[in-house]
């Protein structure tokens, strides 16, 4: 290996390595601040190509990467021979220096384990959290401690191992009487020498083997003993063994078989947004799910899913060691570079001491299980964000950070966000969502159907929607235009009845947010000025880099990636996008249904409504017979025949996924 250092100064352009001085070989690099602290570690297939990318146009860098290179004062690198060496060195440096700009996955909660203290003379089965200890065998992790206690309670009937604390054990030994578990048969009571250390260790070994997945053989052994006891007319022992088998089966039901081949595998999935990534892992041993665990991390750059998976696996197995690496590791995506994926497989095999099958499942039970883990990751990310949003202190800090970043006179207690949804300029709709004190107010949400002839692009549509909204604010009408605006949620419990409060459009927001960059925010500013509300601030939130744009400015406001204010703005923007997409899909569905039923003799609006109420969708109506259609009140046999004939010969309607553009038959 060879090493090179570059002198340290504060400006990225001045500590940039001289042209041609960076080797083209693979290696690992690290950025340090003026005090010599390592703030970022990375690896590269070609050091020259990777490091040069940090010193190009700074405006094009990911905000967190930009913060890193402007914080650093020095960069150094180490050349290695292979990508496996690069992975090893990268992980060891991250572990040694704990750089602030590297992704570090942290547990999203404290997960309990079922632990067996094999390092004690009389091993104990117990629920345990925190750091793992040498000589203790761990099973799990489990989602809830009560699930462990429930399972352990079933198993103690069959494997009566010690489960009491050291204090209880010593006291029972002193007084010569076992605790309650010893009296009811859920402990073999080694404290009073009912069994000696070797006999108790044998019971513990059976419990560990059962938890390891060797369940079938043990159950069959008990069944043979039960039949033998019955044949010997020892019905009391046979009944006890029967009850033991039932207890084991109840414990096994909690971990149903998910992989029929009985394999050992870790199934990893992730969910991410521009700010954070959540990872979930299911531990499958012997084909059964034996544990589950989750992590959440701040994203440090625009890494792909494959790169995020690689970083996670390095941290997970690097910390846990070879015993934690199973025969198979199933992931949603591999690093895009085949050499990097191969190096990762090789490193995992080296940690385990045997071959590791690292792959993306394509079909069958394993793909279905991966989808289940992905759903858990999505829920974990959503829950993590909602917890942040529900905390009063966090919400107050978020509003204060927005006030400071945008130089507002006061925190924006009411934030309104607007988004536009369309497909190739058709069925253009807008959404308005409202957050008060950092919480969503679904009763205040409104939908807009964009009617203007020039509203076929987001900029024009934003201008029309904002003009209509703030015209309503100025007029403060007694009644809303039902055709324009509707809410999609029930009112919050703390809201007053509709008759006891002004209409939603009578409230002026403290901040207006539009989904988009400078063109959208400029259009919003023009609309608001024309409506006479020039004193209300407006910003745009661009998706790509989460930049905050102000009207008529050349550069965006960059809020820290870990800012609670940015989290709140992102959540508001995402909610407006969701609401707009939902409204757009409803509009398209309605228009396609109307077009399919147009022109049918004898079918007016009332009968059309009755048909859709009866069948629920155009697809079900198309599959109905003449008699089934005629059975709808108000629809006679002649009209029913006309409906069936029209739907049989007419064009088949389609539905469009507005997020992907995919077209499918309804």
Automatic annotation (TrEMBL):
One cellular-component annotation, GO = excinuclease repair complex
What does this gene product do? The UvrABC repair system catalyzes the recognition and processing of DNA lesions. UvrC both incises the 5' and 3' sides of the lesion. The N-terminal half is responsible for the 3' incision and the C-terminal half is responsible for the 5' incision.
Pfam families registered for this protein in UniProt: GIY-YIG, HHH_5, UVR, UvrC_RNaseH, UvrC_RNaseH_dom
Q: What is this protein called?
A: UvrABC system protein C
Check the record and name the HAMAP family matching this protein: UvrC (MF_00203)
Q: Where is this region: Disordered?
A: 476-499
Subunit notes for this chain? Answer: Interacts with UvrB in an incision complex.
Family (UniProt): Belongs to the UvrC family.
InterPro entries, per the entry: GIY-YIG_endonuc (IPR000305), GIY-YIG_endonuc_sf (IPR035901), GIY-YIG_UvrC_Cho (IPR047296), Hlx-hairpin-Hlx_DNA-bd_motif (IPR003583), RuvA_2-like (IPR010994), UVR_dom (IPR001943), UVR_dom_sf (IPR036876), UvrABC_protein_C (IPR050066)
Q: Which PANTHER family match?
A: UVRABC SYSTEM PROTEIN C (PTHR30562:SF1), UVRC/OXIDOREDUCTASE (PTHR30562)
GO process annotations (BP): nucleotide-excision repair; SOS response
Q: Report which gene this protein is encoded by.
A: uvrC
Alphabetically sorted, this entry's keywords are:
Cytoplasm, DNA damage, DNA excision, DNA repair, Excision nuclease, SOS response
Show where the UvrC family homology region profile domain sits.
Answer: 267-525
Ranges for domain GIY-YIG: 24-103
Domain UVR as annotated: residue spans: 216-251
Give me the stretches of Acidic residues compositional bias: 478-487
What are the subcellular locations of this protein?
Answer: Cytoplasm
Gene Ontology molecular function: any one: excinuclease ABC activity
Mind giving the lineage of the organism this protein is from?
Bacteria, Bacillati, Actinomycetota, Actinomycetes, Jiangellales
